[in-house]
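Researcher: Good morning. I'm working through a list of sequences from a screen, and I'd like to move beyond sequence-only analysis. For each chain I'm collecting a predicted structure so we can compare shapes side by side. This is the next one on the list. No need for commentary yet; just the structure.
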Amino acid sequence: MIYKNLEPFLIGGLSSCNAEFFTFPIDLVKTRLQVQGQAINKCSGKYRGMFHCFTCVYKEEGLKTMFSGIKPALLRQATYGTFKLGFYQYLKKMLFPSDGIKKKQENFQKYLNIFSILSQ
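Model: Good morning. Structure tokens for this chain:
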């Protein structure tokens, strides 16, 4: 039974890490193109576009460079994604239980009152 309660946390963490791993090279290319665009001399751009940047980085620096810095990014996503998606499911079940519309309205009003008191 305890594993059922932890399931949204585990799935959230794994899915966040998976998404980070597969989009990390795209983020690297985006960052390099942004830095190149901020250069003072615009004519000396090394990359002509996204695909050109991918191929240049791969040929000149290797595949390992595409994933340099992945460890802290995965750690960030593991903590952030785990808590964000896990608590979302937990709060969703707490605020909107599946045992009838009257119960949902009572719970929603109760938590709305708590949040309004806290926000003052």
